[in-house]
Amino acid sequence: MVYSFKGYTPVVHKTSFVHPLAAVTGNVIIGRDCYIGPGAAIRGDWGQIILEDGVNVQENCTVHMFPGKSITLKESAHVGHGAIIHGANLGRNCLIGMNAVIMDDAEIGDESIIGAMTFVKADTKIPERSLVVGNPAKVVKQVSDEMIEWKTKGTQLYQRLPQECHETLREVEPLREVPENMKVQDDIYKTLRETFKK
């Protein structure tokens, strides 16, 4: 659902996809090839939220801020399931892991990876290409070229997803039996652990 608020109407590029069970409100600008998953809430009621091209905000994420703040999720930022971005800015091609919390006025550097369930305190500045984990967040090492290549390929899957949703996603009645010829999807992307195991 997309809602106008106090005269601010969200702008969503035609190549992007906002799931009908997501909520996008107010002063929100969504660029090209962005994916907004079901249960996501992007609330531009108190400030402007900009999603640059190729950003994905996955299922059950929240993007919001204190009044008067404006934030940007830069090109190809990747926000994993259940994460909260509250008044923080995300750098280009970064990855925010599942259920991570990024607090007010934090800055996540370009091509950084924030681990699942990490808590980034308010005003924290994460340098580019940092691997960050823990509560509170701690930089544990630099992101390698191989790691950022893995991340980028994963984000590219999400950048193709909006077109696939526009073309094939339909509300339907469920089948009552499993078809005999039902296929399993192809194995097109490995986990980080699978990618780097020796």
From TrEMBL:
This is Gamma carbonic anhydrase family protein. InterPro entries: Hexapep, Transf_Hexapept/Carb_Anhydrase, Trimer_LpxA-like_sf. Pfam families: Hexapep. It comes from the Bacteria.
